[in-house]
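Budget justification aside, the reviewers requested a transparent look at the raw inputs and outputs of the sequence design task funded under Objective 1. We therefore reproduce one unedited record. The lines immediately below are the structure tokens for a 143-residue chain.
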């Protein structure tokens, strides 16, 4: 069974972050530039939470606030489950499904070492299925 470490090895462990006192608009610009749906919130080298597109939609747009005046720390998600690189993909899918979330922060030795998305899990599952199909085809051809 594949695990989170394999996903991070494939996609990289680069974590894009902002400080909680930055304006939401600044974080959104970084997210758009990097083509990502969430951004880590780091203060003095410590993980504080994630700001996601969903946070923006629900806590800025729907509440009539402005992204140029609201701070990231005011809307970030702080209650996301934390996982580690050894956790398997099925466990992550259950966590995401049960909590209705799209992102999970990954920690190793109490340090943020990556973020995985539901898209990462789907891609990994598809790759795994393709590999299994290819192995079965090869097995059938060899018999």
């Amino acid at each position: 069974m594949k695990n989170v470490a394999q996903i991070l090895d494939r996609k990289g462990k680069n974590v894009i972050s902002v400080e909680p006192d930055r304006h939401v608009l600044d974080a959104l610009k970084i997210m758009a530039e990097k083509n990502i749906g969430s951004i880590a919130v780091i203060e003095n080298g410590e993980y504080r939470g994630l700001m996601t597109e969903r946070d923006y939609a629900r806590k800025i747009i729907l509440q009539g606030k402005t992204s140029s005046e609201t701070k990231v720390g005011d809307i970030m998600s702080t209650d996301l489950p934390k996982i580690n690189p050894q956790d398997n993909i099925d466990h992550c899918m259950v966590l995401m499904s049960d909590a209705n979330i799209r992102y999970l922060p990954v920690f190793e030795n109490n340090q943020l070492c990556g973020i995985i998305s539901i898209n990462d899990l789907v891609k990994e599952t598809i790759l795994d299925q393709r590999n299994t199909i290819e192995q079965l085809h090869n097995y059938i051809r060899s018999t």
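The chain has one domain: 4-142. The radius of gyration is 18 Å. Computational costs for records of this kind are itemized in the attached budget.
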